Amino acid sequence: MFILESIVNFLNSILWGKNILVVLLIFSGVFFTVKTNFVQLRFLKHMVKLLTDKSNSDSENLSPFQAFCISTATRVGAGNLAGVVSAISIGGAGSIFWMWVVAFLGSATAFVETTLAMIFREKDKTGHFYGGPCFFLKNGLGKKSWGVAFVITGIICWAGVLQVVSNSVTESFNVAFNISPMVISALLTLLAAIVIFGKTDKTAKVLDKVVPIMAVMYLVIVFFIIIKNFALLPQVFSQIFSEAFGIRQGVGGTIGAIIMQGVKRGLFSNEAGTGSAPCAAASATVSHPVQQGLIQSLGVFVDTFIICTATALVMLLTKASVIDGLNGMELLQKSFNYHLGSTFGEIFVAIILFLFCFSTLLGICFYGKVNIKFLTDKEFGQILFKIFALSMIFIGGIQQNFFMWNLADLGLALMTIINLSGVFPLSKFAFDSLKDYQSRFNPIKA
């Protein structure tokens, strides 16, 4: 185990520590933003309109909204809570600014990778669509081995994420209700099993109800906190912008840590460029590939600019002495306790974290289903992955393992590199598809 941890830490020290991923993601975002002529801004209004379009739905595949909910479920999860907490704990308030930058640029990357997933997806004998990086690497570049590598790195990442997310829930319930992690972990595993096992996978139907409810519930409470502390907002935003460029730190090299934390946790949260969200998006029924690309671009905005920012503001509006020296979910719970009172604050965080994390767990299980389908059509492969996923959920819930954060980071980095190795050479197909969509539908004026 020590040797494995050493290898993982060594690779992370290169990929993340040397800012290789930071440079790659920012370059990708800038490149795709320019090449699409700022598609994430020009089509923002149209994205919202597409989200509610039901004209293309069918009984065999997901609706655009269901695909959005599945990908949003994994984005709007632990990354928005634990990830933001981690970013601020290590990189300070300034890391939030870099999360915004990554989200803005990443929304263009999300558009391109999703559009490619739609173009190169496959339909099985039952009429279901399957797509994602492994499919466009095989069908677009003829690199099936790269597709297999993506699946393997995805499983490595998701193994870490499943454990981290599960542990966040059990830790929160233990603090709020003094319930044993074993009990909550077993309950979480059982609920996930009920949804993903059975004659039909109920993931999409559950998430298109849970995701809107949990998002609205969370934002209503945060909005109340913001209104209550409205006079402090200018000071908070001043802190974010000043610390983003190391102005208040005065220590050489600090700005590098700030940027890295913002980019790393921003990516962990919004997933743009990793290739995971297209796995769900490609299962949707739409009349044009670009439509689902635009919807996934919107998902990045919702994740970071709305949910992540809401979490950050709650923490930054909390008196420093209340959370000084704290980290992890305890920091977040103390922040909500400060604003809402200890009883309601702890209960609210526990419930919202349960919803956020449960939806993330289901979303990851759906991603796994698509990627296992790439490896084998046999049902046995699906069953094995579901058992694996449930095992990770249970194990993660009963014990905290910081190594799993590092494993998730490594898997995420490798997924991103493999995904973008296909996205760049195939991006012309997405650009041409965007031109075709604009000429046929004139969406900006629609």
Structure, explained:
The chain is mostly helical and 446 residues long. It has one domain (15-441): Up-down Bundle (Amino acid/polyamine transporter I). The protein has 20 helices and 2 strands. Strands 1-2 form a two-stranded antiparallel sheet. The chain starts with a helix and ends in a 5-residue tail after the last helix. The model is unreliable at 249-253 (pLDDT under 50).
**Number of E-state strands:** 2
CATH architecture: Up-down Bundle
Q: pLDDT average, as an integer? A: 82
Shape: globular
Strand content: under 5%
Low-confidence stretches: 249-253
The assigned structural class equals mainly alpha
Summed up:
The protein has 20 helices and 2 strands. The chain has helices at residues 2-15, 20-35, 39-42, 44-51, 64-75, 78-91, 94-119, 133-139, 144-177, 181-196, 203-228, 233-244, 254-270, 277-281, 289-316, 320-323, 328-340, 342-375, 379-398, 402-441, and strands at residues 122-123, 129-130.
Comma- or semicolon-separated keywords:
single chain, 446 residues, Amino acid/polyamine transporter I, 20 helices, 78% helix, globular, Amino acid carrier protein, transmembrane, amino acid:sodium symporter activity
